[in-house]
Amino acid sequence: MAEFTRQRGKRQEDGGLGSVLDLLLANARLVLGVSGAAVLAIATLAVKRLIDRATSPRDEGDPKAEQKTLEESWQDLALIKATAKPPKKQRREDLSEPLLSPARPPAPGEACEPRVSSAPPETPQVESTPPRCLTLQEKLLSHYSSWLAVPKVEASLAPQLARSICTQLQNFLRSKCPELPFGSLFLSGPLLDGLGAPGADYVHLMLPVVLDTALWSLIPGEDTVVRNPQYWMIKRTDLEYFPRGRSPWDRFIVGQYFSSNALNETLHKMLVGSINWPAIGSLLGSVIHPVVASQELKLQVRHDQVELSITLFPMVEMEDKVLLSAPPEGLVENLWLESFHRAEVLKMKELDASDSGARQRCLHILNSICRSHPALHKLNGSPLTHVVLHLSATTLDWAEESLADRFQEVLEELVGYLEKGVLPSYFNHKINLFCDLLEEEIDEMGFLLYRAVSEPELLLKEK
């Protein structure tokens, strides 16, 4: 009974102390806020536990009870130390909620202070004028004026270098082979003739081979072994009356025919092994190298301001034909390729002069596109010229204002020819200018140009 009275008194004391603590905590919530009141409550609870253990009777001689009391004291002391430390601020990246809470509306009569932002002031947006959409006509003219422009230094230096090399080569041939009646070397190519894309990087060097027409005759291409009307053979005639040795070119005869291969091999040996190109290059302020591995007769010229590729073409003019010593690849020999380049240049300039047309300008753009695009590279040059000439026979309006329309029509014509796999020469319809193209190459070109018919800008983007 006495024990019960003692415990009850203790509960009453605890109840009185609890009432005091509750009152203290309630007031603390108002003064310190929720977080401050929570800290005070933890500290108060720890102090209360220490008071309870101090006023409660101790079990003398019970080691377990003493150990339990000691552990509880360490826990309460640690709790007090923890509450003494101010709560750490959370880092911004640890928060899942926004840092700023919704702003409290100002109380009546309370001044609303402006909120200061740490972010730098935004630069006022200035509305830019949207780019103007260029028409195809404007894009083509811009393409012609910018992309096709050749620096004046290159345009003047390249022909000058080529002419100097031409003079040196002419002097060498006359001193080395005085018995061979070579004509005067002259330059050709897009930079000088004005049809291809203006480019100062390659030049053709034409070497006329003068034949006695009484001793030589032409065999049409249809009668040759390749059955190709573009390749001709030059036959030595009347050998029973004019035996070998009568013509200085008889040394290049193979089976009664003037062999283009034999002539090229002789000239190639001269270019590679007989001419002192380092001395000539030093004289011209450049470095000149003959291309040894090529079947063509090529020179590479490197100057401080321009790099140049020169290709030498022996040529024969007979019966209004211009034949080049450019045989097809393979085992076939003695063939000469008919060239229409001179006729192309004359016809194109004649048509443009008659109606102030833009055919040459259109051809410049087409050649530059095909020359820079790997898939269209083999269309560059003569094939494009013949397409424009074919279209000129049916379309008369070639004024500059119609450049875009003619450009698209040329693309349509090209797609049509590629579908058939046949592009007839303007000067000889028996000749197919696509005969040397592979089927895969034709398909690739046709697919690309078919897309470009409806969207010509695809070609102008390629560089």
UniProtKB/TrEMBL annotation:
Do you know which InterPro entries this protein is assigned to? Mab-21_HhH/H2TH-like, MAB21L/cGLR, MID49/MID51, MID51-like_C
Topology in membrane = Single-pass membrane protein
Mab-21-like HhH/H2TH-like domain location, by residue? Answer: 359-445
- Write out the ranges of the annotated region (Disordered): 81-131
Chief subcellular location: mitochondrion
Q: What keywords would UniProt list here?
A: Membrane, Mitochondrion, Mitochondrion outer membrane, Transmembrane, Transmembrane helix
Gene Ontology BP annotations: mitochondrion organization; positive regulation of mitochondrial fission
Which cellular component appears as one GO term in the record? mitochondrial outer membrane
Family matches, as Pfam families: Mab-21_C, MID51-like_C
Q: Does the keyword DNA damage apply?
A: no
Q: Which ranges carry the Mitochondrial dynamics protein MID51-like C-terminal domain?
A: 155-344
**Record localization:** Mitochondrion outer membrane
What Gene3D superfamilies does this protein map onto? 1.10.1410.40, 3.30.460.90
Protein's name in the database: MID49 protein
